[in-house]
## 1
Amino acid sequence: MRSRQIIIASRPKGMPGPDNFVFEDYELPQLNEGELLLQSMFISVDPYMRGRMNDAKSYVPPFELGKPLAGGVVAKVIESKSDNFKTGELVTGFLPWQEKMIVPEKHVQKIDATIAPPSYYLGILGMPGLTAYFGLIHIGKPKAGETLVVSGAAGAVGVVVGQIGKIMGCRVVGIAGSDEKVQLLKSKFGFDEAINYKTTTDLKAAIKAACPNGVDIYFDNVGGEISDAVIRNINFHARIPLCGQIALYNTTELPVGPRIQPWLLTKSVLLQGFIIGNFQSQFPEGIKQLSEWVKEGKLTFVETIEHGFDKLPEALIGLFKGENIGKMVVEV
Ligand code: NDP
C-alpha cells in the first residue's frame, strides 16, 4: 500500500517557505503483531515546530533532513493487529506527517469523541490546553480580583489561559494582532479588555489604561516588544509564566531589547519559563479538569481548520503571520 508524507528538505533561514518541504510517495511496510494501520484525520501545526526545523539543540531534537516532520495527530484505526484497538477507533499521538502510517500500539492513546470533537484533542484537550492550564495555575497562581494579561491571546493557548483566568475571578486583558481577534476575545471568550498590538501606537500606555490596577500575572506567549511593554506595567509580587517567544522564532539575529531585570528586581517579580513536558505526570489531572470545564460550558474553543494534507506547510507558516484564530489544524 502506498501513501504520502511530507519531509523537511532544507532548513529555513528566517521565515520558512514552501521550498523547505517536499511531498513524497512512500510504500507502507507490512503490518506486524502489536501494530496499527492508521489514517490521519487531523494534523496539528504548532509554533514550536519552527525551532525543530533549525539544526540546534533544544528540549526536543531537530527534525532530521529527508525525514517526515512530526507532531500531534488524530487518526482512525483502519486495520489492527492489537487486542487493545479495534478498527474504526480514534486515537491520538505524536506521529509523522503521513496520510496513512503503521505505528506500534504504544505510540497512541484512544480518544473519547463523546466529550468533544476529535480535533479538540490537538487543542483544548491536548498540548495547548494543558500548557494553558499548568502554566497559569501552577506558575501564574491566579487569585480572584487580580489582573491577568495574556499575549498571543487569540491563539490556541491564549484563549484557554484567558478563560481559565475568568473562571479564577481575574480581570483578563488579551493582546492580539487584529481587530477581529480583539472583538472575539471580548464577545466569545469573556476577556474584559483586548488590545490590537499592530494598530496601537503606545502599547505601554494602552496596557496601563486596560489594567488600572497594574498587572499581577503576565502569561507570555510572544516575547519581544509586546512583553517589554507589559513588564513596564508589572505589579509588586507579580508572576510571569514564560510560555513562548514566537516574536523571535524567525529572527536571524536576536535583537537586544530593553533590559527587564530592573523591573523584576524592584517589583519582586517571579518569572518562570516552562515546557509542558515538565508537567507530564500531572496530565491526567489537567485533562480531567479541562474536560469538566468543557462539559459544563465554562470553557469554549475555536479552531482554524485548513482542508487537505497539501495545506500542512502553509498552515504551519500561517502561524507566524497570525492567520489562525484559536488552534490551527489541518483536516487531512
Ligand atoms: P497560536 O495558536 O497562538 O499561533 C501563533 C500566534 O502567534 C499567531 O496567530 C499570531 O497571532 C501570534 N504571532 C505570530 N507571530 C508573532 C509576532 N512576531 N509577535 C507577536 N505575535 C505573533 O500558537 P499557540 O497558542 O500554540 O502557542 C502560543 C505560544 O506558546 C507560542 O510561542 C508557542 O511556542 C508557545 N507554547 C509553549 C509551550 C510550552 O510548553 N512552553 C507549549 C505550547 C505552546 P497575532 O495575530 O495575535 O499576532
## 2
Amino acid sequence: MIVAMLEHASEDQIQDVTDHLMRMGFAVHRTTGARQSVLAAVGKRIDFDTRDLEVLSGVEKVHRISAPYKLVGRQFRGHDTVVKLGNGTEIGGKEVVVMAGPCSVESREQIFLSAEQVAKAGAKVLRGGAFKPRSSPYSFQGMGLDGLKLLREAADAHGLMVISEVMEISQIEPMLPYIDIFQVGARNMQNFNLLRELGKIRKPVLMKRGIAATIEEMLLSAEYIMSGGNYDVIFCERGIRTFETYTRNTLDISAIPIVHKLSHLPITSDPSHGTGLRDKVAPMACASVAAGADALLLEVHPDPDHALSDGAQSMFPQQFAELMNQLRMIAPAVGRSIG
Ligand code: PEP
Ligand code: MN
C-alpha cells in the first residue's frame, strides 16, 4: 500500500501514520520528495481497509497495491483452472462449453424434449431451475426436488451433465445426488453463509455476478468458496443493473477479459439474463465467445411462448441450433473449439 502525505503534513503526522502502519504489521519505507512524503507499506496482510488510513491527519491519498483476495488471484496459481465434469467435459480448457435448457423444469415432457434438442445441437450441460428465485412470490417457484430428479433423468438419457440453482444451505445435501454443477444465482452472490457451505463440498460451483456487484466483489465471493477448500469455481457474467432500460440487464462483456487477467478461474457468459430478449441472445453469445468466455449459459425452451418463467429471453430450439453453427465459426478464430 502506498500512502501519499499532504504537501504540508507535519513530521508528527508522518510519524503517526508510520506508527499506525507498523501496528498493522507493515514494514514502512519513507520517500521524502521535494514537495511531499510518500510511505510505502510492505507486508503480507490483505485484510485492511484503506479508508482507515485515509482518515488520519496529514494523509492525502492511499493506494492499494495488493489484491484483497488470495486464492482466486493469478498469483495463487500460475495456470488456468480447468474444472472437470463427470463426462470428460472441461470448463476452462480449449473448448467453449455450452450449457443450455429451460429457465425452469416444468414437466417431464418439457425437460426431456429440451434435453434432446440441446444435446442434438451440441450442448454438453443441461440447465434447468428446480428452486427458482422469482422476483414475485406469486410467480412459479419451481418443481423442487421432483424437478431435479426429472432434470437428471433427462440429462442422463442424452449424455448431458446437469446444472441447477441452489438457493439455500438446506438444499445442498438433497441436491448432491442429482447435479454436477451447483449454480449460485445473482441474488445469492453475497449470501456468504451459503458460499461457505459450498466451500465444504467437492462439486463445481458456478457463481453468478450479483445484479449490482463490482468485479472485485465477485472475486471476493469466490474466495469464500475457495477458502473452504472447493477450488472448482466458475464465474458467470449475467448482466448488471445500469441506467439502460432497453435490455433487462446490461451484459458486461468487458468483465470477461478483466476476470481472465485477475483470476485463474474460468468465466461463463449468460446472455439470456444479460439481455432478457431472445433476439439479442445470439449476438451477445457470439460477442462473449469472441471476448474469451469459457462457457455459455443459455435459456432454450421447446415452446418459449408458453414457458412458466423467462419465456421472452428463451431461444427457440431452431434458433439455438443456428447459434451453435455460428459459434462453430467464431470459436476457432479466437483459438477455441465448440461442441
Ligand atoms: C437463472 O439462471 O434462471 C437465474 C435465476 O439467473 P440469475 O441468478 O442470473 O437471475
Ligand atoms: Mn431464468
